[in-house]
Amino acid sequence: MLADFLVAEGYSVHTAHDGAYAQELCVRQTFSCILLDINMPTVNGATFLQLLRAFSFTPVIMCSATSGESDMVRFFALGADDYVTKPIRIHELEARIKAQIRRAPTEVTSQHDDDTLYVDPRTRTVVINGRSVKLTPSEFHILTVLMTRPTQLVSRRELVESLYPNVEYTGGFRVLDVHISNIRSKLTSAANPAADIITSVYGVGYVYNGVKPRV
Question: pLDDT value at position 122?
Fold first, then answer.
């Protein structure tokens, strides 16, 4: 039913009956977005996502029957970009798919290279002090939006609206906060551990302070 709806909306849709076939599809060709069920035969959603992130930055929206925060945090840590719960509201899901495919043009559009941090938006490459950092598409988007306004406070609402352009998003800010936590963890492990790369202003937003050389 979901595939039929998306086809009617103009999308080209491929479906996989299990995780193994989904892997095969992703190796053979590239996709603009993947809607991934957690409970799949042969290869479950968590394993599939880990394997996918080894070679692909394709945006992934997780689809789950559970709404627990621990599940959402777990799958974001594995590389998911969004998380929806069943029963699926089909028009909201289609809006989220659009948001993943077409980001607002507020992120860095040219290469950034200051000898400590290198960012290439064309390949979503992030290198800190010579160490490569793998970010999901959503994480990369958030980082580059913050980078356009270094040392300035960017509100949580503004960041969420840039993640879901032209979407009436009602999921609160927890999704954003989990993404920020993952970004901090990944950047700090590659940079100076004492560096406060992204500062949070409690309940308001975040500030990008830049990456300092490792000492």
Answer: 78
Question: Under CATH, what is the fold of the domain 2-101?
Answer: Rossmann fold (3.40.50)
Q: What is the CATH T-level fold of the domain 112-208, as seen in this structure?
A: Arc Repressor Mutant, subunit A (1.10.10)
pTM here is 0.66
Alpha carbon distance, N-terminus to C-terminus of the chain: 56
**Looking at the chain, how many residues does it have?**
215
Report the pLDDT value the prediction gives residue 62, as an integer from 0 to 100: 92
Q: Note whether 2-101 and 112-208 share their fold.
A: no
pLDDT digits (tens, 9 = 90+) for 74-94: 888 888 989 888 888 898 899
Token readout for 118 is 């290198």
Q: Where are the domains of the chain?
A: 2-101, 112-208
- How confident is the model over 178-195, as a mean pLDDT? 78
| Sheet containing 82-85: order of strands | 34-37, 60-64, 82-85
Average pLDDT of span 172-176: 79
How far, in Å, CA of 39 to CA of 131, rounded? Answer: 35
Measured CA to CA, the distance from residue 201 to residue 153 in angstroms comes to: 8
**32-34-9-83 Cα dihedral, nearest 10 degrees:** -120
